[in-house]
């Protein structure tokens, strides 16, 4: 995922409509969760390389 705005635009385009507030809230949660997991995965990968 490039960024939240890209995800928002892509989703609304695929649905062919503007997103509802609950859908935007869910996308924000999903994007934040994805970001946290990516950072965690990168840190784990770096630790493996340093060993």
Number of strands: 0
Roughly how much helix do the residues carry, as a percent range? Answer: over 70%
What count of helical segments does DSSP give? 2
Mean pLDDT metric: 92
Oligomer: single chain
Spatial gap, N to C terminus: 29 Å
The number of domains is 1
CA-based gyration radius: 15 Å
Low-confidence stretches: none
Biggest beta sheet attributes: none
Taken in chain order, the helices and strands follow as HH
Write out key terms for the chains shown.
51 residues; single chain; mainly alpha
Short description:
This protein has helices at 4-15, 21-50. By secondary structure, the protein is mostly helical.
What report would you give on this structure?
The protein has 51 residues and is mostly helical. The chain has one domain (4-50). The protein is 82% helix and 0% strand. It contains two helices and no strands. The longest helix has 30 residues, at 21-50. The two termini are 29 Å apart. The model has no long low-confidence stretch (mean pLDDT 92).
Write the layout of secondary structure elements.
Blueprint: H1 4-15, H2 21-50
